[in-house]
Amino acid sequence: MRLVVLPLLVALLASIGAYSYLSALESKGKPAAPVSVVITSRQIPPRTVLTREMLSTKAMPREFVDDSFITSMEEAAGKTTTVPLAQGEIVYRTKLATKDRKTALSFHVPAGLRAVSLAVNEVSGVAGLIEAGDKVDLILTLGKEAVGKDMTRLVMEDVAVLAVVQSTDVRETQGRDLKTYTSLTLAVTPEQAVLVGFGEKNGAFKVALRGANDGGSKGELEVNSDRFNR
Length: 230
Fold this sequence. Notes:
By secondary structure, this protein is an alpha+beta fold. Helix content is 21%, strand content 33%.
């Protein structure tokens, strides 16, 4: 029996090994399925919002495609180019503006709004604790020369802070370093931008920092000299 079974077992194991080896060679030699990547269908200047009409796709070998390639029209459409793109050029993520990528400020101003800088100091700017991305309210104080009576009014609410400019002076308090602001850059409507200009020329602004989850509105609030002359 050993003379019969042992050779058969050896032959069977050899056959299995040969089959596995040939299968591995076959799978290794088989090319991977191509990947569809997004390309431009025409020349596109910088600062252009991409639409589907500007885009097309083409197949590329998988081994040449990495995470910087955009592989779907849905991901590319609606994004803004930061550099010029030639016709037929591959659309890379690094050539489009996103919230997480550091690009020119104009790419981060919401549609319909304007970026306006407001001069502040340690007192009017909440002791230098405001950061880009925070929301603030603006309180404007005007004198008799401007509006006929002394008054303070809440003029803007829930305004986004796009950027801050800090002074070079640093002071330490309670174990941390604080830099005071020289200006805040805000995202405002054109009407609010005009109000900022008028307020800076004729009065004084104070900035009120909103809570991170506070999206409420107080409406028009005003205090004037009449309140204290009763």
